[in-house]
Predict the structure of phosphoglucomutase (alpha-D-glucose-1,6-bisphosphate-dependent).
Amino acid sequence: MSIQTKITTPFDDQKPGTSGLRKKVKVFQQPNYLENFVQSIFDTLEEFQGKTLVLGGDGRYHNREAIHTILHMAAANGFGKVLVGRGGVLSTPAVSHLIRKYDAFGGIVLSASHNPAGPDGDFGIKYNVSNGGPAPESITNAIFTHSKAITQYRIWSDTEVDLDYLGDSEIGNMVVRVIDPVYDYAQLMEELFDFEAIRALLKGGFRILFDAMHAVTGPYAREILENRLGAPAGTVLNGVVKDDFGGGHPDPNLTYAADLVARMWADDAPDFGAASDGDGDRNMILGRKFFVTPSDSLAVLAENGTCAPGYARGIVGVARSMPTSQSVDRVAEKKNFACFETPTGWKFFGSLLDAGKATLCGEESFGTGSDHVREKDGLWAVLFWLNILAHRKTSVEAVVKDLWAIYGRTYYARHDYEDVDSAAASTLMSELRANFATLTGQVHEGLTIKLADEFGYTDPVNGESTIKQGVRILFVDGSRIVFRLSGTGTSGATLRIYLERFEPNPSLQHKDAQEALADLIRIADTLAGIKQHTGRQAPTVIT
Ligand code: G16
Protein backbone atom coordinates (compact mmCIF):
# COMPACT_ATOMS: atom_id res chain seq x y z
CA MET A 1 0.00 0.00 0.00
CA SER A 2 1.58 3.24 -1.06
CA ILE A 3 1.36 6.54 -2.85
CA GLN A 4 1.60 6.17 -6.58
CA THR A 5 2.73 8.94 -8.88
CA LYS A 6 1.14 8.70 -12.29
CA ILE A 7 2.33 10.47 -15.41
CA THR A 8 -0.35 12.42 -17.26
CA THR A 9 -0.78 14.96 -20.04
CA PRO A 10 -2.88 18.13 -19.75
CA PHE A 11 -6.36 18.77 -21.14
CA ASP A 12 -6.92 22.28 -22.43
CA ASP A 13 -10.62 22.59 -21.51
CA GLN A 14 -10.63 22.51 -17.72
CA LYS A 15 -11.64 26.11 -17.18
CA PRO A 16 -14.21 26.36 -14.38
CA GLY A 17 -17.37 28.25 -15.39
CA THR A 18 -19.95 30.10 -13.29
CA SER A 19 -19.92 27.24 -10.79
CA GLY A 20 -17.04 24.81 -11.18
CA LEU A 21 -16.12 22.52 -14.07
CA ARG A 22 -19.16 21.05 -15.84
CA LYS A 23 -18.87 18.66 -18.76
CA LYS A 24 -20.57 15.65 -20.25
CA VAL A 25 -20.12 12.45 -18.23
CA LYS A 26 -18.24 11.00 -21.18
CA VAL A 27 -15.68 13.79 -20.96
CA PHE A 28 -15.13 13.05 -17.26
CA GLN A 29 -14.81 9.34 -18.05
CA GLN A 30 -11.71 9.90 -20.19
CA PRO A 31 -8.62 8.47 -18.53
CA ASN A 32 -7.02 11.00 -16.16
CA TYR A 33 -9.58 13.76 -16.85
CA LEU A 34 -10.94 13.89 -13.29
CA GLU A 35 -7.53 13.09 -11.79
CA ASN A 36 -5.88 16.00 -13.61
CA PHE A 37 -8.45 18.46 -12.36
CA VAL A 38 -8.38 17.19 -8.78
CA GLN A 39 -4.56 17.27 -8.71
CA SER A 40 -4.71 20.81 -10.12
CA ILE A 41 -6.97 21.78 -7.21
CA PHE A 42 -4.64 20.21 -4.65
CA ASP A 43 -1.52 21.69 -6.26
CA THR A 44 -3.09 25.14 -6.14
CA LEU A 45 -3.88 24.91 -2.42
CA GLU A 46 -1.36 25.34 0.37
CA GLU A 47 -0.95 24.03 3.89
CA PHE A 48 -3.70 21.46 4.00
CA GLN A 49 -1.51 18.62 5.24
CA GLY A 50 -3.32 16.72 7.99
CA LYS A 51 -6.46 18.83 7.60
CA THR A 52 -10.07 17.90 6.84
CA LEU A 53 -11.83 17.88 3.48
CA VAL A 54 -15.61 17.53 3.03
CA LEU A 55 -16.67 15.48 0.03
CA GLY A 56 -20.02 14.65 -1.52
CA GLY A 57 -22.15 14.90 -4.60
CA ASP A 58 -25.74 14.99 -5.74
CA GLY A 59 -25.88 11.25 -6.43
CA ARG A 60 -25.82 11.53 -10.18
CA TYR A 61 -24.26 8.95 -12.50
CA HIS A 62 -20.46 8.69 -12.02
CA ASN A 63 -20.68 10.09 -8.47
CA ARG A 64 -19.43 6.95 -6.72
CA GLU A 65 -16.51 6.37 -9.07
CA ALA A 66 -15.42 9.98 -8.73
CA ILE A 67 -15.71 9.89 -4.92
CA HIS A 68 -13.56 6.74 -4.86
CA THR A 69 -10.86 8.43 -6.97
CA ILE A 70 -10.91 11.69 -5.01
CA LEU A 71 -10.64 9.88 -1.66
CA HIS A 72 -7.54 8.08 -2.85
CA MET A 73 -6.03 11.27 -4.23
CA ALA A 74 -6.80 13.18 -1.03
CA ALA A 75 -4.96 10.47 0.94
CA ALA A 76 -1.96 10.59 -1.36
CA ASN A 77 -1.83 14.38 -1.19
CA GLY A 78 -1.77 14.49 2.59
CA PHE A 79 -5.26 15.31 3.89
CA GLY A 80 -5.79 14.02 7.43
CA LYS A 81 -9.48 13.28 7.22
CA VAL A 82 -12.34 13.33 4.72
CA LEU A 83 -15.96 13.71 5.80
CA VAL A 84 -18.04 12.05 3.12
CA GLY A 85 -21.82 11.71 2.97
CA ARG A 86 -23.22 8.17 3.15
CA GLY A 87 -23.39 6.74 -0.35
CA GLY A 88 -21.19 9.66 -1.47
CA VAL A 89 -24.23 11.94 -1.29
CA LEU A 90 -24.36 15.47 0.13
CA SER A 91 -26.37 18.46 -1.02
CA THR A 92 -24.38 21.56 -1.93
CA PRO A 93 -25.66 23.61 1.04
CA ALA A 94 -24.96 20.64 3.35
CA VAL A 95 -21.32 20.59 2.15
CA SER A 96 -21.07 24.29 2.85
CA HIS A 97 -22.48 23.84 6.35
CA LEU A 98 -20.22 20.88 7.16
CA ILE A 99 -17.10 22.79 6.11
CA ARG A 100 -18.05 25.59 8.47
CA LYS A 101 -19.30 23.47 11.35
CA TYR A 102 -16.30 21.14 11.44
CA ASP A 103 -13.67 23.76 10.57
CA ALA A 104 -12.64 21.88 7.47
CA PHE A 105 -9.95 23.16 5.14
CA GLY A 106 -12.37 23.00 2.21
CA GLY A 107 -14.71 20.77 0.30
CA ILE A 108 -15.34 19.19 -3.06
CA VAL A 109 -18.88 19.09 -4.48
CA LEU A 110 -19.67 16.75 -7.35
CA SER A 111 -22.63 18.08 -9.28
CA ALA A 112 -23.76 19.63 -12.50
CA SER A 113 -26.64 21.16 -10.59
CA HIS A 114 -29.88 21.14 -12.56
CA ASN A 115 -28.34 19.68 -15.73
CA PRO A 116 -29.65 16.20 -16.61
CA ALA A 117 -27.73 13.16 -15.39
CA GLY A 118 -27.07 9.61 -16.58
CA PRO A 119 -24.42 8.17 -18.91
CA ASP A 120 -25.27 10.76 -21.59
CA GLY A 121 -25.88 13.55 -19.11
CA ASP A 122 -23.60 15.99 -17.34
CA PHE A 123 -21.15 15.80 -14.46
CA GLY A 124 -19.34 18.49 -12.54
CA ILE A 125 -16.83 19.26 -9.82
CA LYS A 126 -16.36 22.34 -7.71
CA TYR A 127 -13.95 23.29 -4.95
CA ASN A 128 -15.23 25.21 -1.90
CA VAL A 129 -12.91 27.10 0.43
CA SER A 130 -12.81 27.21 4.23
CA ASN A 131 -15.67 29.70 4.57
CA GLY A 132 -17.89 27.04 2.94
CA GLY A 133 -18.33 28.93 -0.31
CA PRO A 134 -17.22 28.33 -3.89
CA ALA A 135 -13.59 29.20 -4.53
CA PRO A 136 -13.14 32.78 -5.76
CA GLU A 137 -11.91 33.48 -9.28
CA SER A 138 -8.32 33.97 -8.10
CA ILE A 139 -8.29 30.28 -7.12
CA THR A 140 -10.33 28.90 -10.05
CA ASN A 141 -8.07 30.78 -12.48
CA ALA A 142 -4.99 29.31 -10.80
CA ILE A 143 -6.49 25.81 -11.00
CA PHE A 144 -7.11 26.30 -14.72
CA THR A 145 -3.58 27.56 -15.31
CA HIS A 146 -2.18 24.57 -13.48
CA SER A 147 -4.40 22.13 -15.38
CA LYS A 148 -2.82 23.27 -18.66
CA ALA A 149 0.67 22.26 -17.54
CA ILE A 150 0.08 19.27 -15.29
CA THR A 151 2.45 16.33 -15.77
CA GLN A 152 1.64 13.99 -12.89
CA TYR A 153 -0.84 13.22 -10.15
CA ARG A 154 -0.68 11.35 -6.85
CA ILE A 155 -3.07 8.63 -5.80
CA TRP A 156 -3.07 5.99 -3.06
CA SER A 157 -3.11 2.42 -4.28
CA ASP A 158 -6.62 1.00 -4.44
CA THR A 159 -8.18 0.41 -1.01
CA GLU A 160 -11.64 -0.91 -0.19
CA VAL A 161 -13.89 1.84 1.27
CA ASP A 162 -17.50 1.14 2.21
CA LEU A 163 -19.45 4.33 1.59
CA ASP A 164 -22.76 2.86 2.67
CA TYR A 165 -22.13 2.50 6.41
CA LEU A 166 -21.58 5.29 8.88
CA GLY A 167 -18.21 5.18 10.59
CA ASP A 168 -14.46 5.49 10.11
CA SER A 169 -12.01 3.64 7.94
CA GLU A 170 -8.56 4.52 6.62
CA ILE A 171 -6.76 5.03 3.36
CA GLY A 172 -3.09 5.20 4.28
CA ASN A 173 -2.85 7.76 7.10
CA MET A 174 -6.10 9.47 6.16
CA VAL A 175 -9.36 8.82 8.01
CA VAL A 176 -12.47 8.42 5.86
CA ARG A 177 -15.49 9.29 8.00
CA VAL A 178 -18.82 8.36 6.42
CA ILE A 179 -21.48 10.65 7.92
CA ASP A 180 -25.26 10.97 7.80
CA PRO A 181 -25.79 13.47 4.98
CA VAL A 182 -28.93 14.98 6.54
CA TYR A 183 -28.42 15.21 10.31
CA ASP A 184 -26.20 18.33 10.67
CA TYR A 185 -28.15 20.23 8.05
CA ALA A 186 -31.51 19.43 9.64
CA GLN A 187 -30.18 20.58 13.03
CA LEU A 188 -29.15 23.90 11.49
CA MET A 189 -32.62 24.40 10.00
CA GLU A 190 -34.19 23.80 13.42
CA GLU A 191 -31.99 26.57 14.84
CA LEU A 192 -32.93 29.07 12.14
CA PHE A 193 -36.68 28.57 11.87
CA ASP A 194 -39.67 28.32 14.16
CA PHE A 195 -40.45 24.64 13.69
CA GLU A 196 -43.17 24.82 16.32
CA ALA A 197 -45.07 27.46 14.36
CA ILE A 198 -44.64 25.59 11.07
CA ARG A 199 -45.82 22.37 12.71
CA ALA A 200 -48.93 24.18 13.96
CA LEU A 201 -49.55 25.63 10.50
CA LEU A 202 -49.40 22.18 8.90
CA LYS A 203 -51.52 20.65 11.65
CA GLY A 204 -54.13 23.31 11.03
CA GLY A 205 -54.71 21.97 7.51
CA PHE A 206 -52.25 24.06 5.49
CA ARG A 207 -51.28 21.67 2.68
CA ILE A 208 -47.84 21.62 1.07
CA LEU A 209 -46.03 19.71 -1.66
CA PHE A 210 -42.29 19.53 -2.27
CA ASP A 211 -40.87 18.10 -5.49
CA ALA A 212 -37.36 16.71 -5.01
CA MET A 213 -37.24 15.78 -8.71
CA HIS A 214 -35.45 12.48 -7.94
CA ALA A 215 -32.40 14.48 -6.95
CA VAL A 216 -30.46 15.11 -3.77
CA THR A 217 -33.09 16.89 -1.63
CA GLY A 218 -35.36 13.83 -1.33
CA PRO A 219 -33.84 12.51 1.93
CA TYR A 220 -33.42 16.02 3.35
CA ALA A 221 -37.02 17.01 2.62
CA ARG A 222 -38.44 13.76 4.00
CA GLU A 223 -36.55 14.13 7.25
CA ILE A 224 -37.36 17.81 7.71
CA LEU A 225 -40.84 18.22 6.23
CA GLU A 226 -42.37 14.83 6.96
CA ASN A 227 -40.48 13.51 10.01
CA ARG A 228 -39.67 16.67 11.93
CA LEU A 229 -42.49 19.00 10.86
CA GLY A 230 -45.22 16.41 10.60
CA ALA A 231 -46.31 16.97 6.99
CA PRO A 232 -48.22 13.89 5.78
CA ALA A 233 -46.32 11.09 4.05
CA GLY A 234 -46.39 11.80 0.34
CA THR A 235 -45.72 15.53 0.80
CA VAL A 236 -42.32 14.94 -0.77
CA LEU A 237 -42.72 13.97 -4.42
CA ASN A 238 -39.99 12.09 -6.30
CA GLY A 239 -38.08 11.75 -3.05
CA VAL A 240 -35.76 8.88 -3.98
CA VAL A 241 -32.37 9.93 -5.36
CA LYS A 242 -31.78 8.27 -8.74
CA ASP A 243 -28.50 8.44 -10.62
CA ASP A 244 -30.28 9.65 -13.75
CA PHE A 245 -32.71 11.83 -11.77
CA GLY A 246 -35.49 9.64 -13.15
CA GLY A 247 -34.65 10.76 -16.66
CA GLY A 248 -35.78 14.29 -15.76
CA HIS A 249 -34.25 17.71 -15.77
CA PRO A 250 -34.13 18.76 -12.10
CA ASP A 251 -34.40 22.47 -12.69
CA PRO A 252 -37.07 23.96 -10.47
CA ASN A 253 -38.90 26.25 -12.84
CA LEU A 254 -42.29 26.35 -14.55
CA THR A 255 -41.04 24.34 -17.53
CA TYR A 256 -39.14 21.49 -15.90
CA ALA A 257 -41.18 21.10 -12.70
CA ALA A 258 -44.27 20.57 -14.84
CA ASP A 259 -45.89 17.88 -12.62
CA LEU A 260 -45.74 20.06 -9.58
CA VAL A 261 -47.03 23.03 -11.56
CA ALA A 262 -50.01 20.98 -12.80
CA ARG A 263 -50.87 20.03 -9.22
CA MET A 264 -50.55 23.62 -8.02
CA TRP A 265 -52.87 24.85 -10.77
CA ALA A 266 -55.53 22.18 -10.13
CA ASP A 267 -58.80 23.17 -8.46
CA ASP A 268 -57.94 21.19 -5.31
CA ALA A 269 -54.37 22.51 -5.26
CA PRO A 270 -52.46 22.61 -1.96
CA ASP A 271 -51.63 25.96 -0.37
CA PHE A 272 -47.91 25.86 -1.02
CA GLY A 273 -45.67 24.10 -3.51
CA ALA A 274 -41.91 24.08 -3.90
CA ALA A 275 -39.18 22.28 -5.80
CA SER A 276 -35.42 22.08 -5.64
CA ASP A 277 -32.74 21.10 -8.13
CA GLY A 278 -30.11 18.39 -8.65
CA ASP A 279 -27.80 19.44 -5.81
CA GLY A 280 -30.33 21.13 -3.56
CA ASP A 281 -29.28 24.74 -3.80
CA ARG A 282 -32.09 26.13 -5.98
CA ASN A 283 -35.73 26.64 -5.11
CA MET A 284 -39.02 27.51 -6.76
CA ILE A 285 -41.89 28.77 -4.61
CA LEU A 286 -45.51 28.43 -5.72
CA GLY A 287 -48.80 29.36 -4.14
CA ARG A 288 -52.16 28.04 -5.26
CA LYS A 289 -52.20 28.94 -8.97
CA PHE A 290 -49.47 31.47 -8.23
CA PHE A 291 -45.77 31.66 -9.21
CA VAL A 292 -43.32 33.68 -7.15
CA THR A 293 -40.43 35.00 -9.22
CA PRO A 294 -37.08 34.33 -7.53
CA SER A 295 -36.41 38.07 -7.50
CA ASP A 296 -39.69 38.74 -5.65
CA SER A 297 -38.99 35.82 -3.34
CA LEU A 298 -35.77 37.50 -2.22
CA ALA A 299 -37.67 40.75 -1.65
CA VAL A 300 -40.31 38.90 0.40
CA LEU A 301 -37.62 37.40 2.64
CA ALA A 302 -36.01 40.81 3.06
CA GLU A 303 -39.36 42.39 3.92
CA ASN A 304 -40.62 39.68 6.32
CA GLY A 305 -37.46 37.87 7.39
CA THR A 306 -37.11 39.00 10.98
CA CYS A 307 -40.09 36.84 11.99
CA ALA A 308 -37.78 33.80 11.70
CA PRO A 309 -35.75 33.23 14.89
CA GLY A 310 -32.45 32.97 12.98
CA TYR A 311 -32.99 36.45 11.55
CA ALA A 312 -34.61 38.21 14.50
CA ARG A 313 -31.18 39.87 14.95
CA GLY A 314 -32.08 41.99 11.88
CA ILE A 315 -30.96 42.16 8.29
CA VAL A 316 -27.84 44.24 7.71
CA GLY A 317 -27.83 44.08 3.94
CA VAL A 318 -28.89 42.19 0.85
CA ALA A 319 -27.00 41.21 -2.28
CA ARG A 320 -28.31 40.19 -5.68
CA SER A 321 -26.68 39.31 -8.96
CA MET A 322 -26.86 42.02 -11.61
CA PRO A 323 -29.50 40.32 -13.81
CA THR A 324 -31.75 39.71 -10.79
CA SER A 325 -34.63 42.20 -10.67
CA GLN A 326 -34.39 45.32 -8.55
CA SER A 327 -37.39 44.30 -6.45
CA VAL A 328 -35.23 43.77 -3.34
CA ASP A 329 -33.45 47.10 -3.87
CA ARG A 330 -36.69 48.93 -3.06
CA VAL A 331 -37.12 46.98 0.18
CA ALA A 332 -33.52 47.73 1.14
CA GLU A 333 -33.93 51.41 0.40
CA LYS A 334 -37.05 51.77 2.51
CA LYS A 335 -35.73 49.69 5.38
CA ASN A 336 -32.40 51.40 5.16
CA PHE A 337 -30.09 48.44 4.77
CA ALA A 338 -27.26 47.99 2.29
CA CYS A 339 -27.88 46.51 -1.16
CA PHE A 340 -25.09 45.05 -3.33
CA GLU A 341 -25.17 44.19 -7.03
CA THR A 342 -22.70 41.45 -7.97
CA PRO A 343 -21.97 39.44 -11.12
CA THR A 344 -23.81 36.15 -11.68
CA GLY A 345 -22.35 33.38 -9.54
CA TRP A 346 -22.74 32.60 -5.86
CA LYS A 347 -18.98 32.89 -5.39
CA PHE A 348 -19.32 36.67 -5.51
CA PHE A 349 -21.48 36.77 -2.37
CA GLY A 350 -18.94 35.04 -0.11
CA SER A 351 -16.81 38.04 0.78
CA LEU A 352 -19.86 40.21 1.53
CA LEU A 353 -21.28 37.53 3.82
CA ASP A 354 -17.92 36.97 5.52
CA ALA A 355 -17.52 40.68 6.14
CA GLY A 356 -21.00 40.90 7.67
CA LYS A 357 -22.15 43.29 4.96
CA ALA A 358 -25.04 41.14 3.73
CA THR A 359 -27.46 38.81 5.51
CA LEU A 360 -29.56 37.65 2.53
CA CYS A 361 -28.53 36.98 -1.07
CA GLY A 362 -30.43 35.94 -4.15
CA GLU A 363 -30.38 35.38 -7.84
CA GLU A 364 -32.97 35.25 -10.58
CA SER A 365 -31.77 31.71 -11.37
CA PHE A 366 -33.87 30.32 -8.50
CA GLY A 367 -31.17 30.80 -5.90
CA THR A 368 -31.72 32.28 -2.44
CA GLY A 369 -29.53 32.07 0.63
CA SER A 370 -28.13 33.79 3.67
CA ASP A 371 -25.12 33.99 5.93
CA HIS A 372 -26.02 30.61 7.51
CA VAL A 373 -23.87 28.93 4.82
CA ARG A 374 -21.92 30.19 1.80
CA GLU A 375 -24.05 28.56 -0.91
CA LYS A 376 -27.59 29.14 -2.01
CA ASP A 377 -29.96 26.82 -0.24
CA GLY A 378 -33.18 25.35 -1.64
CA LEU A 379 -34.79 23.79 1.42
CA TRP A 380 -33.75 26.71 3.58
CA ALA A 381 -35.78 29.00 1.29
CA VAL A 382 -38.78 26.66 1.53
CA LEU A 383 -38.60 26.65 5.34
CA PHE A 384 -38.16 30.43 5.40
CA TRP A 385 -41.33 30.82 3.37
CA LEU A 386 -43.22 28.40 5.61
CA ASN A 387 -42.03 30.33 8.66
CA ILE A 388 -43.28 33.58 7.13
CA LEU A 389 -46.62 32.02 6.19
CA ALA A 390 -47.00 30.56 9.69
CA HIS A 391 -46.32 33.99 11.13
CA ARG A 392 -48.44 36.01 8.70
CA LYS A 393 -51.26 33.43 8.57
CA THR A 394 -52.08 34.24 4.99
CA SER A 395 -51.51 32.85 1.48
CA VAL A 396 -48.42 32.94 -0.72
CA GLU A 397 -50.26 35.14 -3.20
CA ALA A 398 -51.32 37.60 -0.49
CA VAL A 399 -47.75 37.91 0.81
CA VAL A 400 -46.46 38.77 -2.68
CA LYS A 401 -49.33 41.11 -3.47
CA ASP A 402 -48.74 42.93 -0.20
CA LEU A 403 -45.15 43.42 -1.32
CA TRP A 404 -46.31 44.88 -4.63
CA ALA A 405 -48.79 47.13 -2.83
CA ILE A 406 -46.00 48.63 -0.75
CA TYR A 407 -43.17 48.78 -3.29
CA GLY A 408 -44.73 48.39 -6.75
CA ARG A 409 -44.44 45.32 -8.95
CA THR A 410 -41.34 44.46 -10.92
CA TYR A 411 -42.37 42.50 -13.99
CA TYR A 412 -39.59 40.09 -14.84
CA ALA A 413 -38.76 37.30 -17.27
CA ARG A 414 -35.72 35.43 -18.52
CA HIS A 415 -35.62 34.01 -22.04
CA ASP A 416 -33.05 31.27 -22.66
CA TYR A 417 -31.86 30.11 -26.05
CA GLU A 418 -30.10 26.85 -25.23
CA ASP A 419 -27.47 25.03 -27.23
CA VAL A 420 -27.08 27.67 -29.92
CA ASP A 421 -24.02 27.83 -32.11
CA SER A 422 -21.17 29.22 -29.96
CA ALA A 423 -19.71 31.39 -32.72
CA ALA A 424 -23.12 32.88 -33.53
CA ALA A 425 -23.73 33.65 -29.86
CA SER A 426 -20.42 35.41 -29.43
CA THR A 427 -20.96 37.41 -32.63
CA LEU A 428 -24.31 38.57 -31.24
CA MET A 429 -22.62 39.71 -28.04
CA SER A 430 -19.74 41.47 -29.81
CA GLU A 431 -22.09 43.29 -32.13
CA LEU A 432 -24.02 44.57 -29.13
CA ARG A 433 -20.78 45.74 -27.52
CA ALA A 434 -19.71 47.48 -30.71
CA ASN A 435 -22.96 49.45 -30.70
CA PHE A 436 -22.79 50.82 -27.15
CA ALA A 437 -21.95 54.36 -28.20
CA THR A 438 -24.76 54.67 -30.72
CA LEU A 439 -27.41 52.96 -28.59
CA THR A 440 -27.54 55.68 -25.96
CA GLY A 441 -30.39 58.07 -26.72
CA GLN A 442 -32.10 55.78 -29.24
CA VAL A 443 -35.87 55.49 -28.88
CA HIS A 444 -37.55 52.13 -29.44
CA GLU A 445 -41.30 51.65 -29.05
CA GLY A 446 -41.43 54.92 -27.14
CA LEU A 447 -38.69 53.90 -24.68
CA THR A 448 -35.45 55.88 -24.58
CA ILE A 449 -32.16 54.12 -23.93
CA LYS A 450 -30.32 55.83 -21.08
CA LEU A 451 -27.19 53.70 -21.15
CA ALA A 452 -25.76 50.63 -22.86
CA ASP A 453 -22.69 49.08 -21.25
CA GLU A 454 -21.12 45.91 -19.97
CA PHE A 455 -21.28 45.16 -16.27
CA GLY A 456 -18.01 44.93 -14.35
CA TYR A 457 -17.52 44.53 -10.62
CA THR A 458 -14.95 45.29 -8.00
CA ASP A 459 -15.51 43.43 -4.76
CA PRO A 460 -15.83 46.08 -2.04
CA VAL A 461 -14.20 43.76 0.51
CA ASN A 462 -11.22 42.17 -1.22
CA GLY A 463 -10.80 44.53 -4.18
CA GLU A 464 -10.88 41.70 -6.78
CA SER A 465 -12.20 42.94 -10.11
CA THR A 466 -14.01 41.13 -12.87
CA ILE A 467 -15.16 42.41 -16.24
CA LYS A 468 -17.53 41.39 -19.06
CA GLN A 469 -20.31 40.22 -16.78
CA GLY A 470 -23.25 40.95 -19.06
CA VAL A 471 -24.46 43.60 -21.48
CA ARG A 472 -26.99 46.01 -19.98
CA ILE A 473 -29.44 48.16 -21.85
CA LEU A 474 -30.94 50.60 -19.36
CA PHE A 475 -33.97 52.69 -20.28
CA VAL A 476 -34.93 56.09 -18.94
CA ASP A 477 -38.12 54.70 -17.33
CA GLY A 478 -36.07 52.19 -15.29
CA SER A 479 -36.75 49.18 -17.53
CA ARG A 480 -33.77 46.94 -18.36
CA ILE A 481 -32.71 44.33 -20.87
CA VAL A 482 -29.63 42.27 -20.02
CA PHE A 483 -27.81 39.90 -22.37
CA ARG A 484 -25.42 37.22 -21.07
CA LEU A 485 -23.95 33.95 -22.17
CA SER A 486 -24.41 31.25 -19.55
CA GLY A 487 -21.34 29.88 -17.80
CA THR A 488 -22.91 26.55 -16.82
CA GLY A 489 -23.93 24.88 -20.07
CA THR A 490 -22.08 21.92 -21.51
CA SER A 491 -23.00 22.04 -25.16
CA GLY A 492 -22.94 24.98 -27.53
CA ALA A 493 -23.82 28.33 -25.98
CA THR A 494 -26.83 29.38 -23.94
CA LEU A 495 -27.94 32.93 -24.55
CA ARG A 496 -29.85 34.44 -21.64
CA ILE A 497 -31.98 37.56 -22.03
CA TYR A 498 -33.28 39.13 -18.83
CA LEU A 499 -36.20 41.55 -19.10
CA GLU A 500 -37.46 43.84 -16.39
CA ARG A 501 -40.03 46.64 -15.95
CA PHE A 502 -41.08 48.44 -12.79
CA GLU A 503 -44.81 49.09 -12.41
CA PRO A 504 -45.76 51.31 -9.48
CA ASN A 505 -49.42 51.70 -10.53
CA PRO A 506 -51.59 49.16 -8.62
CA SER A 507 -54.17 49.05 -11.40
CA LEU A 508 -51.52 47.81 -13.84
CA GLN A 509 -50.00 45.11 -11.63
CA HIS A 510 -52.29 42.23 -12.63
CA LYS A 511 -50.86 41.42 -16.06
CA ASP A 512 -49.11 38.32 -17.27
CA ALA A 513 -45.35 39.02 -17.24
CA GLN A 514 -44.81 38.16 -20.92
CA GLU A 515 -47.63 40.52 -21.86
CA ALA A 516 -46.30 43.31 -19.65
CA LEU A 517 -42.84 42.87 -21.17
CA ALA A 518 -43.92 42.39 -24.79
CA ASP A 519 -42.35 45.63 -26.05
CA LEU A 520 -39.04 44.91 -24.30
CA ILE A 521 -39.02 41.41 -25.80
CA ARG A 522 -39.41 42.91 -29.27
CA ILE A 523 -36.75 45.54 -28.57
CA ALA A 524 -34.31 42.84 -27.45
CA ASP A 525 -34.68 41.13 -30.81
CA THR A 526 -34.33 44.39 -32.71
CA LEU A 527 -31.15 45.37 -30.84
CA ALA A 528 -29.44 41.99 -30.83
CA GLY A 529 -30.82 40.26 -33.91
CA ILE A 530 -31.62 37.18 -31.84
CA LYS A 531 -33.65 35.38 -34.50
CA GLN A 532 -31.16 36.20 -37.19
CA HIS A 533 -28.08 35.10 -35.20
CA THR A 534 -29.52 32.01 -33.51
CA GLY A 535 -31.85 30.87 -36.27
CA ARG A 536 -34.47 30.36 -33.53
CA GLN A 537 -37.95 31.78 -33.59
CA ALA A 538 -38.57 31.46 -29.85
CA PRO A 539 -36.68 30.83 -26.60
CA THR A 540 -36.09 27.26 -25.41
CA VAL A 541 -37.12 28.09 -21.85
CA ILE A 542 -38.91 31.07 -20.35
CA THR A 543 -38.68 31.59 -16.60
C1 G16 B 1 -24.94 28.45 -10.87
C2 G16 B 1 -24.40 29.56 -10.04
C3 G16 B 1 -25.40 30.66 -9.94
C4 G16 B 1 -25.82 31.12 -11.32
C5 G16 B 1 -26.33 29.94 -12.11
C6 G16 B 1 -26.61 30.29 -13.56
O1 G16 B 1 -26.01 27.85 -10.23
O2 G16 B 1 -24.08 29.12 -8.74
O3 G16 B 1 -24.82 31.69 -9.22
O4 G16 B 1 -26.79 32.10 -11.23
O5 G16 B 1 -25.37 28.93 -12.13
O6 G16 B 1 -25.42 30.64 -14.15
P1 G16 B 1 -25.32 30.87 -15.71
O7 G16 B 1 -26.34 31.94 -16.02
O8 G16 B 1 -23.92 31.30 -15.96
O9 G16 B 1 -25.69 29.57 -16.40
P2 G16 B 1 -26.14 26.27 -10.15
O10 G16 B 1 -27.42 26.03 -9.40
O11 G16 B 1 -26.19 25.80 -11.58
O12 G16 B 1 -24.93 25.81 -9.44
User: Anything to note?
Assistant: The mean pLDDT is 96. The longest strand covers residues 409-420. DSSP finds 19 helices and 27 strands in the chain. The radius of gyration is 23 Å.
